Amino acid sequence: MISREDNPDFLNSFLDYTITILNKSPNTIKEYNYDLATFLKFIKVHFKMTDEEDFSNILIKDISIETIRKITLDDIHAFLSYLTNTYHSKATTRARKASSIRVFFNYLCSKASLIEVNPAQNLETPKLDKRLPKYLSLDDSKRLLNITYNEDNRNYKRDYAIITLFLNCGLRLSELVGINLKDIDFSECKMTVIGKGNKERTIYLNKACMSSLQEYLEIRPKEGVKTDKLNSKNALFLSERKERISKRTVQYIVDKELRAAGLDTTKYSTHKLRHTAATLMYQYGKVDIRALQEVLGHESISTTEIYTHVANEQARDAIENNPLANI
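The structure corresponding to this sequence follows.
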């Protein structure tokens, strides 16, 4: 990851703005820093300010605001084209970088008044391929849960609670590892999670979630839990080292249990369990799309609508597989 010490002052000012005013998450800040540093390195090459072609060796700290003022929409398009031709970047990657550039120039022009013309004002987002999310079937989901509840695994109650929450609540990985004990209200059968953009939302817990959490909390270590910057003492899920469980550990757990259930780990992951929860809720729970948007913490309803497409595809398959289809 690129260090802020290597950035020009105006880039660091932008990052400070996104932290303090836009209230973006640390992961988003890192993405902004990486995307914009890459863009500025390209600008140095594009403007023939360096002979160096290896981006890892290009310094950007010396880029002045005068150079930024020379950037046009064509230069931004050249950068996106470079990503496509050189790195074969996917549309999603280019869309993210275009978004970073758009927010950055809006700050420089409208907020900091460092440039008079915003070259990204008419920058369009690269068109994304609409792909249906991969998810487990209801039977596969049940098999995964049954496999996970295996007493041969000394951490099976913890692991079972983790997968139960993923499959029932549609949590993001970062949301799950961030849950604290105080976030769960057992009397009201609900919990609070912190989603993207540090936005707080309420998740209601069904019987399966309540039961798995209560079983896990009976054996959750109470002594020797580390006092650290991760706030491990208050964390819901702990690792064997008695500290807040890491994203990597959760990914390992899910991968291990998927393999044990005979499921393809190249297709499924923690995020696919979130897709599974959303799809099952929409298909079997007859959940209103707005309610599903709230459960998942989507900022835009268009993100949630992909699950209606899943149902539409299944309806099409049902018709195609009718035994009378080929008569």
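The mean pLDDT is 90.
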